[in-house]
Amino acid sequence: GAVVSQHPSRVICKSGTSVKIECRSLDFQATTMFWYRQFPKQSLMLMATSNEGSKATYEQGVEKDKFLINHASLTLSTLTVTSAHPEDSSFYICSVRVGNQPQHFGDGTRLSIL
Amino acid sequence: GQQVMQIPQYQHVQEGEDFTTYCNSSTTLSNIQWYKQRPGGHPVFLIQLVKSGEVKKQKRLTFQFGEAKKNSSLHITATQTTDVGTYFCAGGTSYGKLTFGQGTILTVHP
Known about the structure:
- The structure holds 2 protein chains of 2 kinds.
- Chain A is mainly β.
- Chain A contains no helices and 11 strands.
- Chain A has strands at 4-7, 10-13, 19-25, 32-38, 45-51, 57-58, 67-73, 76-81, 90-96, 104-105, 109-113.
- In chain A, the strands form 2 sheets. In chain A, strands 2, 4, 5, 6, 9, 10 and 11 form a 7-stranded mixed β-sheet that branches.
- Chain B is an all-beta fold.
- Helix content of chain B is 0%, strand content 55%.
- In chain B, a hairpin with a 2-residue loop joins strand 6 (55-58) and strand 7 (61-65).
- Chain B is globular.
- At the A-B interface, strand 4, strand 5 and strand 10 of A face strand 5 and strand 10 of B.
């Protein structure tokens, strides 16, 4: 069964809207979760590392005020795309790291901003 | 920062032909992972290699990790139409961060 649940799977909304994406670890307590973004026909780019109980660590070039990450519990991390614009349209995927095991990925959220 | 280069970007093969994709990291890796992504889907974990010079097989797929732990390859023998998709390598650090290669898009003509 699924280890990571990501919701919603697809969002279509107007420019200027803020969109929240949830990533839940179903079977494990995850102190660390990762958020990736994938543009069409491109690779997955790590956006940030979500740390339970502390601030997220953002990769270079990712605006922390634009992409708000909250990891308030050991099973839930949220990514909020604030004031989304068409250029934010992308496939957003979270993953959960458990110990030294390979990361478990969510099914992804396809975000389309009109 | 760490960079992982993957080639080729595209590979078109006839069904039954072999296929290989290569990854090269700018730094020594703790591990390397391979994923397959179908169009519209999310990456699906295939395998993780940890040891220098490691070779692992999964049916028609053979994965290798270089002696210096900086390069890796995925080889598919006798491709089938079900093998189509994008294959990504991802270099892992000791603290869990993954850097993905650009991916190789494989198409298989029946």
